[in-house]
Model the fold of this input.
Amino acid sequence: MRAFVFSIILICSGILTSCSDDGTAPKPTVQVATGEGTISEGDTIGEGALMHFRLVINGNGAKITNLVATITCDGQKKTMMDFGLWKDKLDTIIGFYKSAWKQENWTFTVMTENRDFASAGITIHKGSISAFGPIVNWPLITLSFQNGEGPHYFDVETGEVLTDTEATTRQSDVDLLVYFYNDAGKPSPTFSSPGDQDALSHYPVIGNWSTLTYTKYDYVTQTTPEAFDEASNDSLLIKQYDDVWGRRKYKYATAGWVFPFKTTNGKIGLIKVLRSDLDASGTIDFAVKVQL
Done:
């Protein structure tokens, strides 16, 4: 069974800090909790290492509707996550990769349905040894669009292309799929995954699946084909992918485009489009580099 990295893992519950507007009712609380394998205040982490933060959140009678993670360093601020929720309480582990910043001041902020807020912070230092990892290179993958006769699905960890029948028996292995449509009159070869609701209209078989994986595509951050070709570890992959821009599909994927993605299993990768037909019966050729 493949390793499974959750963006959010439910565990239990807990409380700590809060802020309020009128002080007349319990306000939300959030805590950066400690535990085995999670980040603590003042930790020193090598660039490129995967960091796990444990957050314990309680709406205290109100639904939690939003969780935002930001980092600041030397006057710069970056939003790492902006996630919608509808939970009474949450004990969650979220993962991010250590950046090149020497010191990261993390702030985790929650909001409830009553628009009450709570925040908690933690400071992380950069270690002297980088922790970039190996990657797998799949130099040529060919998939068919929805009306084509070839395989439509791809497992980025094994490099296997899968037909409808094969994908149905290996639902958790399907990291991406492709389809073609005209978007406002513009031809759009599109990368997606079973968790994208639009994929169902092109592949009705997905409606019978019990496991729908969800790959996010960073539709803003791009790199050059030359940088893709030169990547020999996951340094470029980590630096290119930004969760804030992660979306359920990537449109207009024609030759020369290079863009990041992140699978349900937490694997970050880059796709380089090599060639694409512009009809639903055609195929698309692409290369993939992904974390091992």
User: Anything to note?
Assistant: The two ends are 15 Å apart (CA to CA). Confidence is low (pLDDT under 50) at residues 1-21.
